[in-house]
């Protein structure tokens, strides 16, 4: 991202991690939108409350500022990005300086890539996804829109993840597996077979 200023939508745990990245990137944060202002003692980053984005006039936001969805929940993040698009606000992706991203990877808009994440060659990270701390997305993987690859999970080569899917922390997915839309892969799971849409997969299938 260029050094524009930014507003964030949502101000809780996931936002705090993003705000650390923005500080390292020297991006000025002009304020946050949320249902209501946080308590003073919870305003850890001393941000100005700009209101509930659905209720305030957003005309004061011009092209010189980005608006970023800072919510970990996939469904809510999708709705926020729809809102950003409907209001023709300017999107960006945020890549923490401690992430490693191949020049040959494609990172779409409103994606967050956290510290320690690795995105290797020819990976495609679609709109609104999160690649969280220390996660590895190997060569030629595709991450669907509004999905979340949680901390330390490992997607080996050519894995395909659908839309609105959560790959839990420390999960491993073996090469070439396809995970559907609206799937939850439990933390620590090992996935060796394709997973259909709208399902939950937990644990691993150990056998000799
Ligand atoms: C920075 C961040 O914090 S990013 C956050 C990223 N989030 C994650 O990684 C969380 C991923 N979520 C999980 O792994 C959750 O445990 C879920 C979604 C799989 C839980 O699903 P639920 O349907 O609510 O399952 P529930 O908690 O009722 O457990 C059902 C059973 O599965 C077991 N189970 C739950 N999760 C797991 C898991 N990851 N691995 C193995 N077993 C599990 C439970 O122990 C329980 O077993 P039991 O019936 O023998 O008692």
From TrEMBL:
<dbReference type="Pfam" id="PF14602">
    <property type="entry name" value="Hexapep_2"/>
</dbReference>
<keyword id="KW-0677">Repeat</keyword>
<dbReference type="Pfam" id="PF17836">
    <property type="entry name" value="PglD_N"/>
</dbReference>
<keyword id="KW-0808">Transferase</keyword>
<dbReference type="InterPro" id="IPR041561">
    <property type="entry name" value="PglD_N"/>
</dbReference>
<dbReference type="InterPro" id="IPR020019">
    <property type="entry name" value="AcTrfase_PglD-like"/>
</dbReference>
<dbReference type="Pfam" id="PF00132">
    <property type="entry name" value="Hexapep"/>
</dbReference>
<dbReference type="GO" id="GO:0016746">
    <property type="term" value="F:acyltransferase activity"/>
</dbReference>
<feature type="binding site">
    <location>
        <begin position="12"/>
        <end position="14"/>
    </location>
    <ligand>
        <name>substrate</name>
    </ligand>
</feature>
<dbReference type="InterPro" id="IPR011004">
    <property type="entry name" value="Trimer_LpxA-like_sf"/>
</dbReference>
<dbReference type="InterPro" id="IPR050179">
    <property type="entry name" value="Trans_hexapeptide_repeat"/>
</dbReference>
<feature type="active site" description="Proton acceptor">
    <location>
        <position position="139"/>
    </location>
</feature>
<feature type="site" description="Increases basicity of active site His">
    <location>
        <position position="140"/>
    </location>
</feature>
<dbReference type="InterPro" id="IPR018357">
    <property type="entry name" value="Hexapep_transf_CS"/>
</dbReference>
<protein>
    <submittedName>
        <fullName>4-amino-6-deoxy-N-acetyl-D-hexosaminyl-(Lipid carrier) acetyltrasferase</fullName>
    </submittedName>
</protein>
<feature type="binding site">
    <location>
        <position position="148"/>
    </location>
    <ligand>
        <name>acetyl-CoA</name>
    </ligand>
</feature>
<dbReference type="InterPro" id="IPR001451">
    <property type="entry name" value="Hexapep"/>
</dbReference>
<comment type="similarity">
    <text>Belongs to the transferase hexapeptide repeat family.</text>
</comment>
<keyword id="KW-0012">Acyltransferase</keyword>
<feature type="domain" description="PglD N-terminal">
    <location>
        <begin position="6"/>
        <end position="82"/>
    </location>
</feature>
<feature type="binding site">
    <location>
        <position position="72"/>
    </location>
    <ligand>
        <name>substrate</name>
    </ligand>
</feature>
């Amino acid at each position: 991202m260029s050094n524009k200023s930014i507003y964030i939508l949502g101000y809780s745990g996931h936002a705090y991690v993003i705000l650390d990245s923005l500080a390292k990137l020297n991006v000025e944060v002009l304020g946050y939108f949320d249902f209501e202002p946080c308590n003073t003692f919870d305003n850890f980053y001393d941000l100005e409350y700009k209101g509930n984005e659905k209720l305030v006039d957003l005309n004061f936001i011009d092209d010189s500022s980005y608006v970023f969805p800072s919510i970990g929940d996939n469904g809510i993040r999708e709705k926020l990005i729809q809102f950003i698009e409907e209001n023709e606000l300017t999107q960006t992706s945020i890549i923490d300086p401690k992430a490693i991203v191949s020049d040959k990877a494609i990172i779409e808009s409103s994606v967050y890539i956290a510290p320690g994440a690795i995105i290797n060659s020819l990976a495609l990270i679609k709109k609104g996804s999160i690649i969280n701390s220390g996660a590895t997305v190997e060569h030629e993987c595709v991450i669907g829109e509004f999905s979340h690859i949680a901390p330390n999970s490992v997607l080996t080569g050519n894995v395909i993840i659908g839309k609105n899917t959560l790959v839990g922390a420390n999960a491993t997915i073996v090469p070439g597996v396809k995970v559907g839309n609206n799937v939850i892969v439990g933390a620590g799971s090992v996935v060796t077979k394709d997973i259909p849409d709208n399902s939950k997969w937990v644990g691993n299938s150990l056998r000799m």
